[in-house]
Specification:
Largest sheet: 8 strands, mixed
Strand content: 35-45%
Number of strands: 8
Structural class: alpha+beta
Shape: globular
């Protein structure tokens, strides 16, 4: 089977160290507002994929976490990762094409839409929404291709995430 993965970052805002401008200039935004924005975007992507009959699984619920595991501060990012599987590979590929075609009209800027550098050459889509300060990454893993472990189901994996923010309510946690 085929896998489509939409991922917006694996680590939120990337590595942050004391010399990073993120430590001094991170925007202030209440965590609840950011969580709701990521939930809305994730739901929008699910609807845009338009995959009736697909099995949708969330790896974890929408979650707020530190920008990096090795940096303690009031900076946080929010992410949501989920996958769609259980439908033919052709439908998954068409769903990726739909995302690529439709997202720009909704304020998303396409950063990348091409096969990745893995042996399986999974189709990858990276987008960002400047107005809402959101990022997303989708990846279609076609289980029929070379380099995909035997038995791995085709799927689209999607991650919606944010840059780092300073939490104005961090002192109350």
């Amino acid at each position: 089977m085929t896998t489509l993965i939409l991922v917006l970052s694996t680590n939120g805002c990337g590595t942050v160290d004391e010399k990073s401008p993120l430590t001094d200039d991170a925007p202030v935004r209440p965590a609840n507002d950011v969580v709701m924005a990521v939930e809305r975007a994730s739901e929008h992507f699910n609807l845009a994929l338009d995959l009736p009959g697909a099995v949708i699984e969330a790896a974890v619920p929408v979650s707020k976490g530190p920008c990096t595991a090795d940096y303690e501060s009031d900076l946080y990012s929010v992410r949501h990762t989920w996958s769609a599987a259980g439908v033919p590979e052709e439908e998954l590929h068409r769903a990726m094409d739909r995302l690529h075609a439709e997202l720009p009209a909704q304020g998303w800027r396409v950063l990348l839409y091409e096969p990745d550098s893995s042996e399986s050459e999974s189709l990858e889509l990276r987008v960002e929404h400047d107005e809402d300060f959101l990022l997303a990454h989708a990846r279609f893993l076609d289980g029929r291709k070379v380099g995909v472990p035997d038995g791995r189901e085709s799927e689209i994996t999607l991650t919606v995430f944010t840059p780092c923010y300073e939490d104005p309510d961090a002192a109350s946690y």
